Amino acid sequence: MIAFLQQYGSQLLLKTWEQLYISAISLALGMLVAVPLGIILTRFLKTAKVVIGLASMLQTIPSLALLALMIPILGIGKLPAIVALFIYSLLPILRNTYLGMESVDPQLKDSVKGMGMTSLQSIIQVEIPIAMPVIMAGIRLSAVYVISWATLASFIGGGGLGDFIFNGLNLFQPDLIIGGTIPVTIMAVIVDYLLGLLEKHLTPKKKNSEEVPK
Q1: Of 98, 102, 101, residue with least CA distance to 50
Q2: Which residues form a coiled coil (predicted)?
Q3: Which pLDDT tens digit goes with each residue over 31-49?
């Protein structure tokens, strides 16, 4: 491993950055789309089944097949990889956002309406804080998925740590495979841990979780 770092140290930093960049952009786009959509779907229950079903169907498409479908549309490079990973990131976040918002006590919703809160105020000040642990669980799961699947971006010229892994497989060099796999694993663990800290920061304390803001 020391020999690997001496020979590929600079490339390892570059590929790690590419992996993180692709994953972060994909996850951020997934959050920007799936969280608001999940909240909106709680107001349209019939539509929710269709949309979540569609997201589930997209999740079943093999990752290599989806990447291959991106090539005629977007060519090769980071962009098609980001789009494919964005699609994969949607289901866990969308489903958990919907389930988290649906789990809020209906009586609590009625109470805040009786206090004169608008629907938007109720969502922001009451429902989202209560649903936050479930929403963050979906984001954390999606983050781990995206970081792992980002290694496949190498197949379409997207870069990342997958370059080491697949070069190692093609050249029968275990050190390249290990050198690409270990950083991906470490990155996934660190990101999950950091998102866990963010979840604790954003989640209200249990004793206040069902109190209506004044």
Answers
A1: 98
A2: none
A3: 999 999 999 999 888 899 9
The H or E element spanning position 4 is helix 2-41
200 vs 101: CA distance, rounded Å: 18
Answer for the pair 177, 111: CB distance below 8 angstroms, yes or no: no
Domains for the chain: give ranges and CATH numbers. 1-102+116-202 (1.10.3720.10)
Q: Please give the C-alpha separations between residue 122 and each of 56, 95, 101, 116, 201, in angstroms, as whole numbers.
A: 29, 20, 11, 10, 20
DSSP symbols for 158-208: --STHHHHHHHHHHT-HHHHHHHHHHHHHHHHHHHHHHHHHHHHHSPPGGG
**What digits encode the pLDDT tens for the residues 61-83?**
888 888 888 889 998 889 999 99
Q: What is the pTM of this model?
A: 0.87
CA pair distance 16, 195, nearest whole angstrom: 19
